[in-house]
Amino acid sequence: MNRRNMILGALAVVGMGGWYLTSNSRSGSTPVNPLANAANAQTSGEVDTSSVPDMVLGNPDAAVTITEYASFTCPHCAAFHEGTFKKLKADYIDTDKIKFVYREVYFDRPGIWASLIARCGGEEKFFGIIDLIYKSQSTWARAGEPAAIVDELRKIGRLAGLDNDAIEACLQDGKQAETLYAWFQENGKADDIDSTPSFIINGTKYSNMAYDQLKDIIETELAG
């Protein structure tokens, strides 16, 4: 997704007064409006994002660090995780040759909801949950009404071993949603992210690419 669509998506996340995570009466959850003041709060520096951890795989002390910026609702990001990422993981992450960092980009409300589920199990479950999220993106992201989308995300959470109480607590955590949005804004601005997936490799930004190209960049960095 390009910069124009990223801006429109970010405005959609924070600009809707009637923004609710869910009003599902079956779960007994109460509708919340977690991002109603997120834009004003983060621009005035009122949101403390230090509580949001980077999600990391591989060797923390590796000479090469790759930071991926991706959206859970981005088809190109899903394709990357279904293809290129598996090769990257086998060749470089699992062999401790690189440090891999995943950072969420929020184009829309479903992206925030998916992130709340992905982070619900902590760092231990995060990458397993995002694998499920990307594999079923075409199902949950196109489920229709917000309540239907959230219900599909609940299914993913349960499949990942989260219990219902934990899922509801995470989905209703307005403070976390607001903090994640501010965190995304800080990171995106700092790294000049204008499309997804984007990659910061040892400080240099790259757009989406084929695995062979990515591998060449990594090998060059490792040799340097």
Topology:
Layout: H1 3-14, H2 38-43, E1 55-58, E2 64-70, H3 75-82, H4 84-93, E3 98-104, H5 109-118, H6 122-135, H7 137-140, H8 146-159, H9 164-171, H10 174-190, E4 198-201, E5 204-207, H11 211-223
Parallel strand pairs: 2-3
Antiparallel strand pairs: 1-3, 2-4, 4-5
Can you put this structure into words, describing what you see?
- The chain is globular, with a radius of gyration of 17 Å.
- The chain has a single domain (3-20, 37-223), classed as Glutaredoxin.
- Strands 1-3-2-4-5 form a 5-stranded mixed beta sheet, with helices on both faces.
- It is 52% helix and 12% strand.
- The model is unreliable at 7-44 (pLDDT under 50).
- It has helices spanning 3-14, 38-43, 75-82, 84-93, 109-118, 122-135, 137-140, 146-159, 164-171, 174-190, 211-223, and strands at 55-58, 64-70, 98-104, 198-201, 204-207.
- It is an alpha+beta fold.
- It starts with a helix and ends with a helix.
- α5 (109-118) runs parallel beside α8 (146-159).
- The longest helix is centred in the last third of the chain and has 17 residues, at 174-190.
Gap from first CA to last CA: 32 Å
What's the number of structural domains? Answer: 1
Strand content: 5-15%
Helix content: 40-55%
CATH top-level class: Alpha Beta
Topology as H/E string? HHEEHHEHHHHHHEEH
Structural class: alpha+beta
Strand order of the largest sheet: 1-3-2-4-5
| Overall geometry | globular
Can you tell me the CATH topology?
Glutaredoxin
The radius of gyration computed from the alpha-carbon positions, rounded to a whole number of angstroms, is 17 Å
Number-wise, the strands total 5
CATH-defined superfamily: Glutaredoxin
Q: If classified by CATH, what would the architecture be?
A: 3-Layer(aba) Sandwich
| Mean pLDDT over the full residue set | 85
Largest sheet: 5 strands, mixed
Task: Count helical runs.
Answer: 11
Q: Which residue ranges are poorly predicted, with pLDDT under 50 across at least 5 consecutive positions?
A: 7-44
Family: Belongs to the thioredoxin family. DsbA subfamily.
Pfam families: Thioredoxin_4
Protein name: Thiol-disulfide oxidoreductase
Function: May be required for disulfide bond formation in some proteins.
